[in-house]
């Protein structure tokens, strides 16, 4: 879903006959809906059944894909992309189902493998989308998503077992409204601040207003009997530090997804690019996803034998190394290839470690909500990277044959931001307790 529109993103103003600041909503809408729906879907899954909620999220994605496929104007595309963003909530719920139904000895390996498939989806989606865009009508991207979603819906219905674990109590409607309002305001300020101006009334008002709403929401959640998210569980050291590291990991990984393709695709005459086509650059980036798949069995074994903290340290160290390598070596295509292999190692180990660290420290009744909150923190890191890296590359650009392209200084500054975030993630991971406190330990998972 997130790489689906990358091949047509630059052409959206022409395809939809709309200004670029309007077509940016095609990406922003998905980001907003994913951020809001993910933690809410996690709580709904804990209360009413995880598979049931996953089926609802897949159905929303299929509906959004059909709406976008049938739309010729921007409003329909934005609405469709908003529905498509719901599918992100299925990821933490899927991981939670595995905890509920698999034997303890198999959970870590299963989580590592599922985390690897996330990278494979993005890595394979980019070249496939590029081929479709170059050979067929661009609406076929959404028809393909609708068909794929329908197949997945049927497979989940037939194959995935029903998780019988349920959380009692009443659904927190006020808490749901509060987190939705606060997140939408904050994420809007982050994702559109570069365009509106970081000191503009809209950006400052939405950003500060979102923070105030989220603070008030937190106070309310601590006092209500059946909260949407149990913040006392979320404040446990293992959970809190993992979520903080997730913000930095989300930032660093998304920054790499912006920087490396630009290096590959920028014109040779610009002084910083290799002039590759979208398809060729996609093939250079794709090995990162293949590395994730190859390393998933290794990640599962390390997580079981040595603990998920070591996984996160290895992953964040590989991510830091990828940025450090690129700072000194980015004059050949194979340099970018090596960096993307390191990114694949980082995602393969880092993404596998996060749900393992969360689930070993939370009760069964909080699995869906806690994993959903972790996914939300990654989304915040992603949105922040999208805004800041775009601002840096736009601020340090020159005119090349009528097109604004980033300078070498802008690329290096963006690499510094991404590498800095990776280093923060590594340092944070080092402070995560090797084992949760006895009162916080999950009785069903190895630590």
TrEMBL record:
It is found in: Cell membrane. Keywords: Membrane, Transmembrane, Transmembrane helix, Transport. InterPro entries: MFS (IPR011701), MFS_dom (IPR020846), MFS_trans_sf (IPR036259). It comes from the Bacteria. Its main location: membrane. The lineage of its organism: Bacteria, Bacillati, Actinomycetota, Actinomycetes, Micrococcales. It comes from Microbacterium lacus. This is MFS transporter. The chain crosses the membrane at residues 23-41, 53-71, 77-98, 110-132, 138-159, 171-190, 196-220, 240-260, 272-298, 310-330, 336-354, 375-398, 410-432. Coiled coil: none annotated. Gene3D superfamilies: MFS general substrate transporter like domains. It is a multi-pass membrane protein. Residues 1-437 form the Major facilitator superfamily (MFS) profile domain. It holds the Pfam family MFS_1.
